[in-house]
């Protein structure tokens, strides 16, 4: 059984999922792969992990970096988990390219190279948006590329972190406010 709770963020409604003790999902409503890691019955319930996650989100959306992490449970293949672990190392307000992540993975696995496209697939299937910061991943030369929640939300999240979005925007100049 999984449990749900909800958060109304300044950039859209968010659904959270838990196995009862850990956060296992956090999605903008309607985003690609919404609730993909939640299998079986769900029930709306207030849980300590949801209260902690809401506190984390309150701090984050106020423009500050939270100094704690809710307990996470990332469910996916070994490859996806390795990519998500790297996402957790990207500093607040910084970005990393798919290619850089691929190089880190290749080194960790002792292989000559790793596919940046495969990395992109794993990033896109991240089940805990924002907290596992897939929005901090950009294409080659800093191009903003796909985000399961939508490019507009990616831009908003990077702006919240005071990332110099104007330097990153090459494909979407009209979306800058």
Structure description:
- It is globular, with a radius of gyration of 16 Å.
- Strand 2 (12-18) and strand 3 (23-28) form a beta hairpin.
- The relative contact order is 0.15.
- The longest helix is centred in the N-terminal third of the chain and has 14 residues, at 48-61.
- A four-stranded mixed sheet has the order 3-2-1-4, covered by helices on one side. Strands 5-6 form a two-stranded parallel ribbon.
- Helix 2 packs across helix 4 (116-124) and helix 3 crosses helix 4 (116-124).
- It has helices at residues 48-61, 78-87, 98-109, 116-124, 151-160, 165-168; strands spanning 2-9, 12-18, 23-28, 42-44, 96-97, 137-138.
- The chain folds into two domains: 2-61, Double Stranded RNA Binding Domain (2-Layer Sandwich), CATH 3.30.160.70; 78-175, Orthogonal Bundle (Arc Repressor Mutant, subunit A), CATH 1.10.10.
- By secondary structure, it is α/β, with parallel strands linked by helices.
